[in-house]
Amino acid sequence: MAQVSLTQAPLGQSLRIVAIDGGRAVRLRLATMGLREGTAIRVAHAASAGPMVVEVGGGRLVLGTGMAEKILVAASTAAACREEGCEHDIGAARHGGRRFRAGFGLS
User: Phi first, then psi: what are they for 79, rounded to 5°?
Assistant: First the structure.
């Protein structure tokens, strides 16, 4: 998934904030809510028009459409690996030759 506006992001997918397209006031407002570049989020609810609910840091936030438009997101690395089925060899020699899937235990 390329980077898209939060309003165009699919429901339930793990996302990471890539950029915030706004001025200092917008960035400060979002930062006080815990939304910064690199933050992992998930869209919990979004209507066709109106506010949307996002999950961040174990809590939920309601964002208006204007604010959500300014947040650019991309699929998080773990979600991208699950979709593409990629495996990461994390020190297989040190772990008895066992292969690990990125953060999901033994494969």
Answer: -70, -40
Domain containing residue 55: 4-75
Q: Check the CA dihedral 10-11-17-22 and report its sign.
A: positive
**What's the CATH code of the domain at 17?**
2.30.30.90
Residue 67 lies in a domain: yes
Cα(15)–Cα(3) distance, rounded to whole angstroms?
A: 10
Burial of 59 (0-12, 13-18, 19+ CB in 10 A): exposed
pLDDT of residue 91 exceeding 80, the answer is: no
For the purposes of burial, counting CB atoms within 10 Å of the CB of 23, is it exposed (0-12), middle (13-18) or buried (19 or more)? exposed
pTM of the predicted protein model: 0.69
Contact 85, 39 (CB under 8 A): no
